[in-house]
Amino acid sequence: MGASGSGPLAGVRVVELAGIGPGPFAAMLLADLGADVVRVDRPGGAGLNIDPAYDVTNRNKRSVLLDLKSPDGPAAVLDLAERADVLLEGYRPGVAERLGVGPDACLARNPRMVYGRMTGWGQEGPLADRAGHDIGYIAITGALGMIGRADEPPAIPANLLGDYAGGSLYLVIGVLAALQHARATGTGQVVDAAIVDGTAHLTAMIHGMMAAGGWQDRRGANLLDGGCPFYGTYETADGGHMAVGALEQRFYDEFVQLLGIADAAPARMDFDRWEELRAAVAARFRTRTRHEWTAVFQDSDTCFAPVLSLREAPAHPHLAARGTFTDHAGITQPAPAPRFSATPGAVRRPPARPGADTAEVARDWEVPRLAGQEEL
């Protein structure tokens, strides 16, 4: 199995200093796009309690094992950085500098390199040195407070909104933009990707709506946050759920017709009777199972969908037809995204085992200092 794939980033070399959460996911995205990603693992692991054989965020990568607190560890990282296009790290501010692998040291060896930094709070600010996790980052940006029912605490969207949407995706966007700049000018730079910045950026449309008077600054009172009875989720007779997004008039008309409440439902835009409409929709959905309602709406433009579990999702006919999920090395997992007509990505390698590729990388990247590190 080759180090680089045939994706649009084939030939791009990336060094990932091992961490958890959004950093590894960002590196996986680059690897899925064809980059040759070398993950620098440390003895004892990065702290995530998962068997490396199942850590899908390390697919399509190779791993070397280095102790950055040893005399040769930082020097080996700098040797890799000298040959890389991108380096990613997710330490607290100042840690990479103290280890001797910060931006100044790396860019001195390779002025064209892009140095990507992934943190929750950012490189500066009153909270920069504080510990944190996704839930706190999305809390202070206002994003968490938007999610959930009006009479309940905010709903926690796993760690998808902060770590991955506000973190990993913004790091990848920043790195690719800086890589384009470096190739055009010969000058690398540092990308400061903070989860608080990215998550706040995701709320841009909502801030615009709020300024225009079209969004109330409270949960469960708006068009897209569950306040609207024809944009939400409803329980079915078997304890399953259906998701409805019939916002436009023609989609709504078909929805209430197929649901069987067209003649009795209050007017769609009679806001004072939205709770009555919600109750009518909920009562009807509880009369049939999720499977039965799926069959009712199957061929319609009602903007519906059954709410599936993670294990159910790969078998959905649409996702199966598109190959949205794939099986590789015995693991069902999301396939690389997005898709490219000329340079498609692929799952080429199983999750990298810590240190398993040290000798191979030492040869391919011509870094003899890595030789002998397998025994750490």
SSE map:
Blueprint: E1 13-17, H1 22-32, E2 36-41, E3 61-65, H2 73-82, E4 86-89, H3 95-99, H4 103-109, E5 114-119, H5 134-140, H6 160-185, E6 189-194, H7 195-202, H8 204-211, E7 231-235, E8 241-245, H9 249-259, H10 274-285, H11 290-297, E9 304-306, H12 317-322, E10 325-328, E11 331-334, H13 358-364
Parallel strand pairs: 1-2, 1-4, 2-3, 4-5, 5-6
Antiparallel strand pairs: 7-8, 8-9, 10-11
Structure description:
- There is one protein chain.
- By secondary structure, the protein is of the alpha/beta class.
- Helix content is 34%, strand content 14%.
- It is built from 13 helices and 11 strands.
- It has helices at 22-32, 73-82, 95-99, 103-109, 134-140, 160-185, 195-202, 204-211, 249-259, 274-285, 290-297, 317-322, 358-364; strands spanning 13-17, 36-41, 61-65, 86-89, 114-119, 189-194, 231-235, 241-245, 304-306, 325-328, 331-334.
- A 6-stranded parallel sheet has the order 3-2-1-4-5-6, sandwiched between helices. Strands 7-8-9 form a 3-stranded antiparallel sheet, with helices on one face. Strands 10-11 form a two-stranded antiparallel sheet.
- α5 crosses α6 (160-185), α5 (134-140) crosses α7 (195-202) and α6 crosses α7.
- The longest helix has 26 residues, at 160-185.
